[in-house]
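dude i think i finally got it to work??
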Amino acid sequence: MPTVDNLYLDMNGIIHKCARPEGASENAPPIKEEKIMDECLVYIDMLVNTVKPRKLLYLAVDGVLGPPTAPLPSTVPRLTTAPTVTIR
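look at this
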């Protein structure tokens, strides 16, 4: 793997993946926040140990999308796909 100085992660995709695991029914009971956080940390740890950034790990998180600013239908597929890692 090439050397990487900086690793930038969009946490929205990671949080969504950990809060709604693949194969989970829409009627399934909600996952506790502690479990979601644990899953996010395990996933981030795996990414960092795989990529091994030398200088910077940047975790980008933006706010909750509520009723006044509900996401456009075009963003839903992006949120339901697994996050990807870009190596530059």
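The radius of gyration is 15 Å.
im so relieved honestly
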